[in-house]
Specification:
By secondary structure, this protein is an alpha/beta fold. It has 27 helices and 31 strands. Among the domains are: 87 residues, Alpha-Beta Plaits, CATH 3.30.70; 139 residues, Nucleotidyltransferase, domain 5 (2-Layer Sandwich).
């Protein structure tokens, strides 16, 4: 007989790990105990060497569905083992090294129970077990025990307590476990404060009434697991437009939820990999290709109409309210298609399946999709508190479905897509955060590091003990509410994980609020500060998630985005960098073009078109040869003399090598979002949606726009789009269809990138290429470049664990800082 202590680290708390250990230890004839502590799970066993070995094999093979074992450390037992049986012991509080489990979608067993009239959980909207339910959203401290969650306000009834303490039960130590008798309750309220009565509509209960309200064209605010959502019937154009106008979200696509896969498949094609994502415990929003594309003119008209509503708010409110009333009264009209205004200008829809019992119960009778978008006014953080929701959402929604389980931590829905057979995370939040990301070899023994992230799509990152803990998506910090939420969440993580950083990493942009806060924290705590170049951080993040070791040969990183602060004080955004974790060398870039008006150029794409035409020396030719074109007529009405002075004198018109702005310029030139965008990247997304996919497979030279390649004064290679513009204007004059021009542009850009990559790989003897940055959310560009490079036997690495956009930037900042510290320690 031998005695051992077995330390298990990873996602092992709140996921049914201890009951699994108990069951397997008993089956293997072992004595001892298992407990949670700050480092994970500690197992003490007494038995034969063969029995212990069998136990460890089965533990890894039969690990609970939500658990993840990162490390198992075996050591001889300390002291005399006096156990006569195997038991589960009380949790122990000590130094925090464990992780917090992400919130998990309702498991099949709990789904079955809420629809079973014989179950005591029948129609209970907060049913959960160790395989599912809230985690991050309800925790205030660890270990993950009920007293450290918002469920501490609810005392378990005898039945729930019995299941909670029964090691053979699925709810053993499921901290949020509750039922109708003892748990949280949900209720319906009218936004106008008037009472809700049963005579208003037929309903089984308040939750069931929500379905009836949605079917009638009402907007309902639903308190979910990590925040409020606003819901309406996705097939009711009047209801969707009313929601857009009230929420002040005029163009950005709405997320959808459907009762089951069968409903989703009525509207979208769903691959096997996409089905796996939809039904997974993470239950993210999955971007899916529409089965039948809505008429493009209709999409553009809806987009324009939506903006008109924003400009004429009061008039728009009256018209939409009248339209909604008319729709509700005319019950004979049936809608079978998704409303055009759900996702204007896009050929994909973002669908998710119900991930809480509340959602399942609401959608039980709903045979069509619903809009389920964040419960906020556009760009503000999602509401999480009942009173806050009443105040901020009261003028948006018609009804509330509320409950009395506090949401302690705001967690948005995650967004993912499948590119080829690979998963690409667009927004990492519910279901994924804050699960740790294991770092590559060489990063296992470093002091704790805090990386502050970017300005847009912000996340922050804690680096410790060979792993990175990336926060959930926190939004755009330029919004005051989002910045406040960012600071609150940062404090929460630092306290939860008892993380005391010995170094802080920030972006080099001097005006990022995250960078300013990082400087303040570093100064106040006398911690070293490391400023990391934006695109180097993008590349390093991709290297880290792909497991590239610390002391590896440099890779060729291709980082395309809207903009990032460059080493030379200009804005970069189309970069080819020879990089490792320690340093980088800029080998090539796109020709810098002025961003006229600075930030205005992000939201008014025509500014980029004009800047590119000026840069290409084509404006005079436009006035002579192409004066009949729509874009030329449009630009003639702008104050061109003033714009020219801004460019010539570099007044609020910084040069930028941004590929993102090139997409905007092309989109505006062909008539897409020419005047304005309501969110960054809108024009580029619409341009991608227009692409005629048949053209992509035609590699004839006539279907390719030319780019120039030269050697700049800074001794780096430069890609110039000037000749592309001449060819594109010619196509416009010949009335070439928008989808053809969009396809040709994507093909041409991909060819130019591949040509440059091949040349650089040959010159610098590189065989590994990184594709990163927000522009590579464009699946067409990503697939075109990847396939061509792989054909040339160049290994291509992209993102799958973290976003390719700025949502993954903090990991890169942290890992580069770690590399610097490691070099210093060595």
């Amino acid at each position: 007989m031998v005695s051992e202590e077995i330390r298990v680290r990873g996602i092992v708390q709140g996921v049914g790990f201890r009951p699994t250990v108990y069951r397997l230890a008993k089956a293997c004839g072992l004595r001892g105990d298992v407990c949670n502590d700050g480092e994970g799970v500690l197992i003490r066993v007494l038995g034969s060497e063969e029995a212990i070995a069998e136990f460890l094999v089965r533990l890894q093979r039969e690990c609970p569905p939500l658990a993840r074992i990162n490390e198992i450390i075996r050591s001889p037992g300390v002291g005399e083992c006096k156990f006569n049986d195997f038991v589960i012991s009380q949790s122990v509080s000590n130094k925090i090294k464990t992780v917090i489990t992400p919130d998990a979608a309702t498991c099949p067993q709990c789904q079955k129970e809420i629809f079973d009239p014989l179950s005591r959980f029948y129609r209970y909207p907060f049913t959960n077990c160790t395989h599912c339910g809230p985690r991050l959203s309800i925790i205030r401290a660890i270990p993950y025990d009920r007293c450290n969650t918002s469920m501490s306000a609810f005392v378990m009834c005898p039945e729930c307590a019995k299941e909670y303490h029964d090691v053979e039960n699925r709810r053993f130590h499921a901290q949020p476990t509750a039922c109708h008798v003892c748990g949280p309750t949900a209720w319906l309220e009218r936004a106008d404060g008037k009472p809700v009565t049963a005579s208003m509509f037929s309903m089984m209960d308040d939750v069931d009434a929500v379905c009836t309200l949605l079917q009638r064209g009402e907007i309902v605010a639903i308190k979910g697991i990590g925040g409020f959502h606003l819901a309406c019937d996705a097939t009711n154009e009047a209801a969707v437009q009313k929601l857009r106008q009230r929420k002040k979200r005029y163009d950005k696509p709405f997320a959808l939820m459907a009762r089951d896969l069968a409903v989703i498949e009525e509207y979208c094609t769903v691959s096997g990999k996409e089905k796996e994502l939809l039904i997974s415990a993470a239950a993210p929003i999955v971007l899916l290709r529409k089965k039948e594309e809505t008429n493009r003119k209709g999409r553009i008209d809806a987009q324009a109409a939506s903006r008109r509503v924003g400009r004429k708010e009061e008039e728009g409110r009256r018209v939409l309210e009248e339209l909604a009333v008319s729709h509700i009264n005319n019950r004979k009209i049936q809608h079978s298609h998704i409303a055009t205004s759900v996702a204007p200008g896009q050929n994909t829809l973002g669908f998710m399946l119900p991930y809480t019992p509340l959602h399942h119960l609401i959608l039980r009778r709903m045979n069509r999709p619903i809009v389920l978008t964040s419960g906020n006014i556009s760009d503000e953080p999602q509401c999480i508190d009942n009173d806050e929701a009443r105040e901020k959402l009261g003028k948006i929604t018609d009804y509330f479905i509320l409950h009395n389980r506090d949401i302690l931590n705001r967690v948005d829905d995650s967004v993912v897509r499948v590119v080829g057979e690979a998963i690409q995370i667009v927004r990492r939040a519910r279901g994924y955060a804050p699960a740790p990301i294991n770092l590559p070899p060489g990063f296992d023994k470093l002091p704790p590091i805090l990386a502050m992230g970017s300005e847009l799509k912000n996340t922050f990152c804690l680096l410790r003990d060979g792993e990175a803990i990336l926060s959930q998506h926190l939004g755009d910090l330029e919004n005051a509410g989002a910045f406040n939420a960012y600071q609150e969440t940062l404090n929460l993580y630092l306290n939860l994980f008892e993380h005391k950083p010995e170094a802080i990493a920030i972006d080099k942009h001097p005006e990022y609020l995250s960078s300013k806060l990082g400087k303040e924290l570093a100064s106040a705590n006398q911690i070293p500060l490391h400023q990391i170049q934006h695109h180097h951080a993008h590349i390093a993040a991709c290297m880290a998630e792909n497991g590239i070791p610390l002391n590896t040969s440099p890779v060729l990183g291709i980082a395309f985005d809207g903009l990032g602060y460059g080493e030379d004080g200009t804005f970069w955004g189309g970069e080819f960098l020879l990089a490792d974790y320690h340093k980088f060398q800029r080998l090539a870039t796109f020709k810098p073009v002025a961003m006229i008006g600075g930030e205005q150029a992000i939201y008014q794409p025509w500014r980029n078109t004009y800047a590119h035409l000026i840069s290409a020396n084509l404006w005079d030719k436009c006035q002579q040869k192409y004066s009949d074109l729509g874009i030329c007529n449009f630009l003639q009405k702008k104050p061109l003399n003033l714009l020219n002075q801004l460019i010539e004198k570099s007044i609020n018109s910084p040069p930028a090598s941004s590929v993102g702005r090139l997409f905007d310029a092309v989109a505006a030139a062909i008539g897409i979002c020419t005047e304005e965008c309501s969110y960054e990247g809108q024009a580029a997304i619409a341009l991608e949606s227009l692409v005629n996919v048949n053209i992509l497979n035609n590699h004839e030279e006539k279907l390719i726009y030319p780019f120039n390649f030269s050697f700049s004064d800074n001794n780096i290679y430069c890609i110039d789009s000037a000749p592309m513009w001449s060819a594109l204007l010619s196509d416009l004059q010949q009335q070439t269809p928008q989808p053809v021009i969009a396809a040709k542009f994507h093909n041409s850009l991909a060819n130019a990138v591949v040509k440059m990559v091949k040349y650089l790989c040959q010159e610098y003897l590189i065989h590994q290429v990184i594709l990163t940055g927000g522009v590579f959310q464009n699946t067409i560009l990503l697939e075109l470049v990847t396939k061509q490079l792989q054909t040339s036997e160049i290994n291509v690495l992209t993102h799958s664990l973290i976003p390719t956009n700025d949502g993954g930037l903090s990991l890169g900042q942290a890992i580069i800082t770690a590399a610097k510290l490691q070099k210093f320690l060595d």
